[in-house]
Amino acid sequence: MTIKAVIFDLDGVIVTTDNYHYEAWKQLADEENIYFDREINERLRGVSRMESLNIILEKSTKNYSEDEKLEMATRKNNYYKELIKNLTPCDILPGVNELLASLKSSNIKTAIGSSSKNSPNILKYIGLDNAFDTTVDGNDIKNSKPDPEVFLKAAEKLNVSPSQCLVVEDAEAGVEAALRGGMKVLAVGFASKCCDNATLCSEDLTKVAIKDLLNI
Ligand code: BG6
Ligand code: MG
């Protein structure tokens, strides 16, 4: 078998938080009188909080200081933290629990590789805080996707070489990060529609057979 570890992105792969991110950014944008819609929200997928804010500010004519930007990012995150308290195990995306169980029974290591600093809380709310061999998230990295740092750190913690890792991603930035890190990548959800460079593509995790994942 080629693959010895599977590294999962969190938002959009394990659980869908898109709408909560949208609602929290929308509230901030409305307060600041900045135009923001769902199309712009798609550009924030996989991108760090501060980089997301900079994308939103492209629609603003005002010049914000670094302190003002920090305050806005914190304000958005406070709205978001309240919204994600609604997450429960019912929000785990289709096929995730089944795939995790098959990987475990095949002795394949698993990790979370997420840009989100809210990762620990999200995993707790959905009851998967002990489901992975290791987790690396936005709190552990300096460079966010498409930089491969988050995935390389996860591979190192698992003691598996990058070429033996498969990343599961829903963001273009994440697919690029995995490839730049020398890993294979399964594009799901949003990325499955636009990432021709991914090793494998699937609309969701119900449609993937474990033998196809491990022998690539
Ligand atoms: C990623 C999301 O997982 O985490 C992005 O796809 C988000 O949309 C990023 O901006 C950072 O999240 P957080 O929770 O640290 O603000
Ligand atoms: Mg994602």
TrEMBL record:
Single GO MF descriptor: magnesium ion binding
Family named by the database record: Belongs to the HAD-like hydrolase superfamily. CbbY/CbbZ/Gph/YieH family.
List the top taxonomic levels of the source: Bacteria, Bacillati, Bacillota, Clostridia, Eubacteriales
Question: Which source organism does the UniProt entry give?
Answer: Clostridium collagenovorans DSM 3089
Residues that coordinate or bind Mg(2+): D9, D11, E169, D170
Active site, UniProt feature:
D9 (nucleophile), D11 (proton donor/acceptor)
What is its cofactor? Answer: Mg(2+)
Record site feature (Important for catalytic activity and assists the phosphoryl transfer reaction to Asp8 by balancing charge and orienting the reacting groups), residues: S114, K145
In terms of InterPro entries, this protein maps to:
B-phosphoglucomutase_hydrolase, Beta-PGM, HAD-like_sf, HAD-SF_hydro_IA, HAD_sf, PGP-like_dom2
One Pfam entry for this protein is Hydrolase
- Any keyword Chloroplast? no
Sites where the protein binds substrate: 9-11, 25, 44-49, 52, 76, 114-118, 145
Entry superkingdom: Bacteria
**Keywords, comma-separated and alphabetical:** Magnesium, Metal-binding
Record's keyword annotation contains Metal-binding: yes
Cofactor: binding details: Binds 2 magnesium ions per subunit.
Report the record's Gene Ontology biological process terms: carbohydrate metabolic process
Q: What is this protein called?
A: Beta-phosphoglucomutase
